[in-house]
Amino acid sequence: MPFRALMVVAAALMVSGCGSSKSAPPSAQSPTTNGVVTTSAQTTTSSAPPSALQAEANSAATGDIPDNQVFISFRDRAAGYSMKYPEGWAQRGAGARVTFRDKNNIVRVVTASGPLPTAASISADLGRLPGAHVQSRPGTLTINGAHAFKVVYTTQSAPNAVTGKRVTLVVDRYYLAHAGKEAIVDLGTPVGVDNVDAYRLMIESFRWQ
User: How far is Cα 198 from Cα 184, in angstroms, rounded to an integer?
Assistant: First the structure.
């Protein structure tokens, strides 16, 4: 009887130990919310610039944004800015990285904490963009009274699976900064499409909150 009692106690201890080890992983995971970037991700300074925009070779042809296009205001409270974009475009992401897209018309805003950009730091960024062909040096301009930089680069999509053709994207990239934060805005247009006026409206609507 004493021996059997000891065996029962030992078995109970083993079951209890296994149960506690299985319950540890769930408590170690952080809760997440779909589409929301965590605070730590938003405040971390990235060591590399956002990747170059890339067109989709299999996407349907993209036309000019019409002159009567309606624009609506997008406000990102987590990242601290607002900007207009064409009504009907698909929005993806929130917080530190947001993309608006209509076929191969692509606009992306990436924010991070960091020092004010300079022509030298921007040139270094562009040197770390695989597949991007820089068309202009960083030029200075003013957007809503704030100092900013603009560069232009091009990229090519992967070949179309049927035709083998590639889509060339011309991208205007803007660097804007305010109160220790930086926003990099890429506005991409396929070659042969004229979105100059619409994209000018969008970048000039950018406001830090």
Answer: 18
